[in-house]
Design brief:
Number of helices: 11
Helix content: 25-40%
Strand order of the largest sheet: 2-6-19-20-21
Distance between the termini: 32 Å
CATH class of the largest domain: Alpha Beta
Length: about 425
């Protein structure tokens, strides 16, 4: 028998950027939003959300569930498969309980993790994954020590659970790696096209992969009706990616006006990731990184704040990702707090709902509160528009609904 659920009494923010409205009842049936009514339908089960703000379920467009253990221990083989699995599924469940009903994983987890969550065997959000990152040998996704032969790198993979990156060099090598990522269940591709904060032996101003190599990955993605996104900090790397046809840029911490204009012209999106930089600055050791990483993170944070303003001025679509890594992946909502300081709370919320849904290609399904869409919803005590810190306070999260099913928030209290 179908149960009709009526969420009543809350102020509704639908995720489109429209003003909040009162006196609406969101009616949920068969996992979907059936209607937005003014009265409770007869026979419906009522959830009274008086005093709350109801929003679409939040979306984190840059996650690394597979990097949810101490990073140094992970890359040196000091963590068992059982411990890694427990950490991954724990991070996934926590994300859902914090109001994130969809995440895009940009490197680390295997399709086995996605299947386990999607089947309901373990609790977690809707997950889209790039599978293993594509990295050139010695690039930003190649975390091995310099004395280890590159041919040993992929032996670290744990089939069904973890695969951090595929090494790819030249057009043929990149095509092979792209096809392998899709064979392993990738929904899209992710490439490292500049140096990284976490990488060994390269700098943020280095570029990686040629335009021709990136273009091969884009071709392979388009052949499967999907897209490629890139990790990129510097402008040369971003412009290489745009020339190759990439549609999304992660981080973009050195984005300048000229490159932002090119992003707008190409219709490319930017996904800034403020949370991870704050976390690394606060305690690099907590995620398994050396102390000197904090200095690099400080530079990236300052640049990323400026990049967000530059992108907004240029009219670039701005999404939202936390990029949390390490054992403590709690507090994903802090990303909205940091972005609210720059964009305002409404635009920060839209970035983490409608805009992220558009970037992920899921805007017909999630991202806004509208009839026919998946019933992915979050209810917060009070108004996060008046006090954005509510987004990062688990005690203020009253309710999460995922695919029409109520997820208790009691453990967050």
């Amino acid at each position: 028998m179908t149960t009709t659920l009526a969420l009543a009494g809350a102020v509704l923010i639908d995720g489109t950027g429209a003003d909040p409205v009162s006196g609406r009842v969101v009616v949920v049936e068969d996992g979907l939003i059936r209607e937005i009514a003014r009265t409770v339908p007869e026979g419906a089960e009522v959830l009274d959300l008086a005093g709350c703000t109801l929003t679409p379920g939040l979306i984190d467009a840059h996650t690394h569930l597979g990097l949810s253990t101490d990073l140094q221990d992970l890359v040196t083989g000091q963590v068992s498969a059982a411990e890694i699995a427990a950490a991954i599924f724990g991070a996934a469940e926590r994300a859902l309980r914090e109001g994130f009903t969809t995440v895009r994983d940009v490197g680390g987890i295997d399709i086995g993790v996605v299947r386990a969550i999607g089947s309901g065997a373990v609790r977690g959000p809707r997950v889209l994954t790039s599978g293993p990152i594509l990295s050139q040998t010695g690039g930003g996704g190649h975390y091995a020590p310099p004395w280890e032969p590159a041919c040993n790198w992929e032996a670290r993979d744990m089939p069904g659970l973890l695969g951090m990156s595929l090494l790819a060099d030249g057009r043929d090598g990149t095509r092979r790696a792209a096809r392998e990522a899709f064979r392993r269940g990738a929904d899209f591709l992710k490439l490292m096209v500049t140096g990284a904060v976490l990488a060994h032996g390269d700098e943020l101003d280095y570029t990686q992969f040629s335009v021709e190599e990136i273009a091969v990955a884009v071709q392979e993605a388009r052949a499967r009706n999907t897209y490629a996104t890139v990790h990129a900090h510097n402008n040369a790397g971003i412009r290489n990616a745009l020339e190759a046809g990439v549609s999304c840029v992660e981080h973009g911490s050195r984005l300048d006006e000229r490159t932002a204009a090119e992003m707008r012209r190409h219709g490319a999106s930017l996904v800034p990731t403020l949370s991870v930089t704050h976390a690394i600055i606060a305690s690099p050791e907590a995620v398994g990184l050396p102390q000197e990483t904090a200095g690099r993170a400080e530079t990236v944070l300052d640049g990323m704040r400026q990049a967000i303003l530059v992108a907004r001025e240029a009219g670039v679509r701005i999404g939202s990702g936390s990029d949390l890594i390490g054992p403590d992946q709690s507090g994903r909502g802090r990303e909205l707090v940091w972005k609210a300081e720059l964009l305002g709370p409404m635009d920060a919320l839209v970035a983490a709902t409608r805009t992220n849904a558009e970037i992920l290609g899921l805007d017909d399904e999630v991202g806004t509160v509208a009839p026919g869409k998946s019933a992915d919803l979050a209810a917060f005590d009070g108004s996060p528009l008046d006090d954005p810190s509510i987004f990062a306070d688990p005690a203020r999260l009253r309710l999460v609904v995922h695919r029409g099913r109520v997820v208790s928030a009691d453990r967050n209290r």
